[in-house]
Amino acid sequence: MHTRVIEFSVPDDHAGRAAAIAALALALMLGSALIAVAPPAHAKVSDPTCVPRTASIGWQSAVAKAKTALTTALTQMGSGHYRKASHQLNVMRHNTQVAHTKATGLIGSPPTDPESDDPPGVTAVLKVGALEHKVATALVPLFSEQSGHRLGRPLSRGLKQAVACRDAMLSKVIALKPGKRDDYVDGLSDTLSTYDKELTAISSELAAGGLTDAGRTTLTRARNVVSATQAAMQKVFGGGERSPSTAAANIRVAFGHD
């Protein structure tokens, strides 16, 4: 943030001093107003980081493609095929964007199946959130490795997108009216422990040697976003009550074991 210094020359005459004081008061009021409306440093639902250029497939297919690309990228990195790994990380990131955009668009939508009371956004949010958790935990340990140094940009872009876009998606859920938000309580309250896992992994990586300056910056920013997401989710869903019959099912959905 840049600070603008405003200098005033106060005249000797009474009328001039009064005018100068009034101008100073106005400047201070305007400065306060600008500070008050400054947007938070979180990704928005419409942030270019989260929105793909094209989105011709549904969120289910996008989640599957992103997972496959992530697995392939890790294999290519292990084999030293860094150009191919970089391409797969970009494929992963694109499909994660598609999944995020499609799932976010379903938040708050009514059930489409006349025989079901389940809004379509619930499963979509859980599945896409699980994907973004998978991406984060897979990429974080790579930043201190030599292979990770060769792929610093795609790794950083993938990690920052995963945590920032998830934050934006969950912020939209949190902003729902209580009646609609209640549909998400069972599933999202079962995912709260995932943030501790991510923060532990990030802190361990930051304490390790071998990080580049860019990698350390990315991890620090990711930790800040995850911490903010965790705090917001804990506040809203930390006391969520779940029936025993639905808790196990929601865990399976959240972590892809359905």
List keywords for this structure.
258 residues; 2 domains; 11 helices; 68% helix; 0% strand
Question: What would you note in describing this structure?
Answer:
With 258 residues, the chain is mostly helical. Helix content is 68%, strand content 0%. It has two domains: 38 residues; 196 residues. The longest helix is centred in the middle third of the chain and has 25 residues. The N and C termini lie far apart (47 Å).
H and E string? HHHHHHHHHHH
What number is the mean pLDDT? 81
Structural class by helix and strand composition: mainly alpha
Sheet with the most strands? none
Instruction: Domain count, please report it.
Output: 2
Question: Summed up, what is this model?
Answer:
This protein is an all-alpha fold. It is built from eleven helices and no strands.
Ordered list of secondary-structure elements with their pairings:
Layout: H1 14-36, H2 59-78, H3 82-106, H4 120-139, H5 146-150, H6 152-174, H7 178-181, H8 185-189, H9 193-207, H10 213-237, H11 244-254
Helix pairs in contact: 2-3, 2-4, 3-4, 3-6, 4-6, 6-10, 9-10
